[in-house]
């Protein structure tokens, strides 16, 4: 594997599915898992097998059908969780157990009423037990974002010794700033014995809208796996959005970070997840939102019609969107009107355009968006229908 490759660990079916109202049945999970495999993700976190019989079945069925990606199951640092996950994953070509425990002072005190030493002991025992079933064991230090770096380094070193292959450093509460999260990864890279033999993973939540920025900061500082979800769905404000981190790495080649994602499948994957989860994608969502390639102000429309790159940093075709949209509103200019009129069959001279534009503005002031049918009406009202080129 290239040193600059960042593995994409998709947790749409686990952290993503934790969103209230987004629960999927096994059939839906299988459809999405097959799409993720096609998309080129490296790891699919298929579920939390001990959490319910339905989740066990889903992980088990996904493990049977996924051909390329590693299939992963989540556990707590609890023997039975690990045993059940191993059973659910037994048909996987490449199985991974993802186990872990909270490491921040708040988790140690309030969740476990325990001590740092005991938490390390529990983590080590969990990793060793998971290793007795599968070679590939990922350890998560829950709430690593708020865990003291020196203690976190001790935790990481102990888990490497116990056999962990991947160390997940979650910003569980979405608290870190990008600089702080990047520095945390750098600190671990520089202070943990054996760190170069394992993969460091970023798992960032979006409580302050920083999940994507934090994950990229982690990768810049040496992490080589990013945990993310389609459309950024996930617990509370969500997880890092897969389409965002992938396109950031692609659009900034000087970072020398790359992935194996087939970006042309991003839009259809987003639509598929939205459809099955019944969760609409916000229109202004980066990369996959309905307005991500739509231009509505006159100044922008004029630029895009002359050359797409004036206002677009991504070719929509790169992410599977057929074309940029020129949306007609009362803020649109003549260039946009002429462009859309031509698309529906009207070639206008400059004088005709001036006339039609007046009619268009009157119309647009009373409607949020002017559609193709409205253009025909505007032409009729402008009394220049005879100029139409059909
Ligand atoms: O946010 C988190 O810390 C998690 C872990 C279970 C990996 O989802
Ligand atoms: Zn999470």
Please tally the β strands and state the result. Answer: 10
State the fourth-level CATH superfamily of the largest domain: Aldolase class I
Largest sheet: 8 strands, parallel, barrel
Give the C-level CATH assignment of the largest domain. Answer: Alpha Beta
Roughly what fraction of the amino acids lie in strands?
Answer: 5-15%
Q: What is the structural class? A: alpha/beta
**Which CATH architecture of the largest domain is right?**
Alpha-Beta Barrel
Q: What string gives the helices and strands in order?
A: EHEHEHEHHEHEHEHEHHEHEHHH
Number of individual domains: 2
In this entry the ligands are:
3-methyl-2-oxobutanoic acid, zinc ion
Pathway: Amino-acid biosynthesis; L-leucine biosynthesis; L-leucine from 3-methyl-2-oxobutanoate: step 1/4
Domain Pyruvate carboxyltransferase: 6-267
Organism: Aquimarina spongiae
EC number: 2.3.3.13
